[in-house]
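Catalogue entry: protein

Sequence with per-residue C-alpha cells
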Amino acid sequence: MNTNNTHQFVKWFRDSSPYINAHRGKTFVMGVAGSAIGSDEFISFIHDIALLTSIGIRVVLVYGIRQQIDERMAKHGVQSQYKNGLRITDETAMQYVKDVASHARVDIEALLSMGVANSPMEGQRIRVVGGNFVIARPYGIHDGIDFCNTGVVRRVDVEALQAHLQYNDVVLLSPLGYSPTGEIFNMSYSEIAKQVAIELKADKLIFLHDDLQLYGDGTEKIKELTTRDAEEFCAKATAPEQIIDCLRKAIAACKAGVSRAHLLDLRIDGALLQELFTIDGVGTLITEGGYEVIRQAHIDDVPGILELIQPLEEQGVLVKRSREHLELEIESFFLVERDGVAIGCGGLYPYGDYAEVVCLAIARDYSDQGKASKLLAWIEKVAQQQGVKKLFVLTTHTAHWFQERGFATVDIEQLPMEKQKLYNFKRNSKAFIKDI
C-alpha cells in the first residue's frame, strides 16, 4: 500500500468509526432483488454482510426470485401471469416458485459460508438460519382475478427471530410464507422485508437492486427524501416499477417506526459499506422526519464544534475558543447535524434588544451548499422569538457574505456598550448590523 492509499485508508477509518459504534448491536433488514442474485456484485455484497456481522450488526436478509422464476418457466414454455405487479401463482407456477426458492437459498448460504476471501476474515464461520418465521394468508381475489397461492404477511414470529439475532446469526428469508393450516404462499420479497422490519422494530430497512437509483427532474441523483417527499415522487414519477415498489415499502416502514430506509444500487462496488459508513452514502435515504437538522447544541456536542471551528481559528477567520469556554456557553450555540454528524455551528449572544451572531462555521465539504444561509436564518428566527430587534456581527473575512444577507456596516460605537468594552482592536473586525 503506497503512502497516498495509506493516508486515504486512515482517514476513511477514522471517519467511519462513529458509524461503527453507532451501528453495533443494531438490527438491519435487507431486501435484495432476484435480478441481482448471482452477479459479481452480489458476491461482494455477501462478503460485506460478513463484515457487518463481525462488528455486531444483526442482519435479516430477504431475497427475491422473480427473474429466476420467469426464466425457469419460460424455459419450459410456461407463461408467467401478473396483475398489478403481483404474480398469479397457480399450482403450476407454485412448483417453480418452490424449486427456485430452494436453489437460491442454497446458493446464498454457500456464499455466506465462504467468509471473505483473501482477507483476515477468510474462513470466518457465519451461522445462517431460516424457517417459518413469516406467517401468511392468501392475497385473495381482486377485480375478479384469483391470485391462487399468492400471499401477504399475516404476522411475523418476532420472538423466534430475535432469539437467533441475539446470537449474531444471519437470518435468511425466502419470499415464501406459511399458514397455520400448512399452506405455502408465494410473496413479494419487498413486502416481507418491510413487514419484518416493522414488526422487529428494526433500525434500518435496506433495499438493494441492480438498478435502484432515484433521479429528480434533471440528471441529479436524489440523495434523501422525507416520507412526504417520497410520496410526491411516487405520485408523479415515471420511474421503473421496482423503484416505486421499494420506495412505497420504505415509506410504509418509516411511517410505522423504522428509523431509516435506504435504496441502493448493487452495481456500485461496496454500495452497502459506503451507505452505512460515510456521511453522504451512495444511495437514497428515506426518513419520516429529516436527515439533516438544525438544533440546540448540548454539552456532548462540544468536541464536534471544536473540530469544526479549529481550521477557521487557525486561519484567523474565527476568534479562538477553548473547550472550557464552549462548555460554559454551549446553550448559546446551534448545530447543523447531518446523519448524527456535526457539519455546522453558530452562536447567539444576547445584549438586550441586540444580539451577536458568533462562530458561524460550516464544514468544508458543505461550504457551497447554502447551509450557512439556512443556519443564519434559523438563528435570526430564534433571535426574533427572544425579542431581539437588531442582530450584529463582527468579521474580518466574510463582510460581503453578511452584506448580501441584509447586514449593513456600522461604526463600533453603534454596538451595545457592553460589546464595545470587549472589542479586540488588534483583530480590527468590521461591524455589521441588521434589523429583524
In short: DSSP finds 14 helices and 23 strands in the chain.
